[in-house]
Amino acid sequence: MTTRPDDGGWILRAGKLVRRLAARIPIVRGFANPWYRHHPLDRSLGIDTGGFLARDRLCADSEARSHASDFAPSAPSLVRQALAMLPEPWRLNFVDLGCGKGRACAVATEFPFRAVIGIELSPPLATIARRNAKRIAARHKDRPEMRIIEGDALTAPLPEGDFAYYLFHPFDLTMVSELARRIEARPGGGDYIVYCNPVHAAAFDACEGLTRHFAGMIPHDREDHGFAPDRDDGLIIWRSRALGVAAPEAQRKTVIFKNGGWRAELI
Question: Distance between CA atoms of 107 and 224, rounded to whole angstroms?
């Protein structure tokens, strides 16, 4: 009797089974995909900001979907560290472009921004983000109001004043480039762009009216360990040139790509 050597097919079959279970059973899904685990931030605020949603399920508009990235939430400790680098937050409106369920906005309410706004294309995600905003407002009446706008990040109405724009790799290069041009052309000159996992950083680097404020890898705090596939993320912050000259160390950092171009690291 001859035995054919195992070609590894059983591994592929087992992997498919796990993925099917992960999509159907919450407990298994949490083990298989860290994005689905109930984050301590959610438990403390009574909200739901976890999960993962492929871009082809974000909305019915195929043109809009074509420019979107998959939904996955930011690590709260990363957002917190990034926003702590912004001087004078009380003069800025915080705007999360592609806010998902509102996790970054929830963290932003810990800071004294003039306003905290999330813009989300997906109706189901925007609905959950609004529900989360109500729960945070009920528990923390002293925090800035968290407002959610359902719509296109390029055309959504925004208040007057200067902004801290937040992105966690929400769009493709075409849309990020258009966003960069619009921000650069905006009157005022007191804006910041906070870009986590800056896959399309070149779009902002190309803007003459913007300069780097910070660039580097940000390690997640212990609270985020096990709730994301990595323990750090790349971060670049740009500011309007009117706010000061470029930071030399930030200028020297180079973006390299991992995981098929879905992860940006700074070296």
Answer: 13
Which residues span the domain enclosing 21?
Answer: 1-32
Q: 122-156, pLDDT tens digit by residue?
A: 999 999 999 999 999 999 999 999 999 999 999 99
Residues 210 and 172 occupy one common structural domain: yes
φ, ψ of residue 25 in degrees (nearest 5) = -115, 115
200 and 151 belong to one structural domain: yes
Task: Please enumerate, as own/partner, the contacts of 176-181 that have beta carbons within 8 Å and a separation of 24 or more.
Answer: 176/200, 176/203, 176/204, 177/203, 177/206, 178/154, 179/97, 179/153, 179/154, 179/203, 180/204, 180/206, 180/207, 180/210, 181/207
φ, ψ dihedrals at 163, nearest 5°: -130, 155
pLDDT band at 202 (very low <50, low <70, confident <90, very high): very high
Structure tokens at 88: 């004078």
Q: Is 128 within 8 Å of 172 (Cβ atoms)?
A: no
Residues 18 and 112 in one domain: no
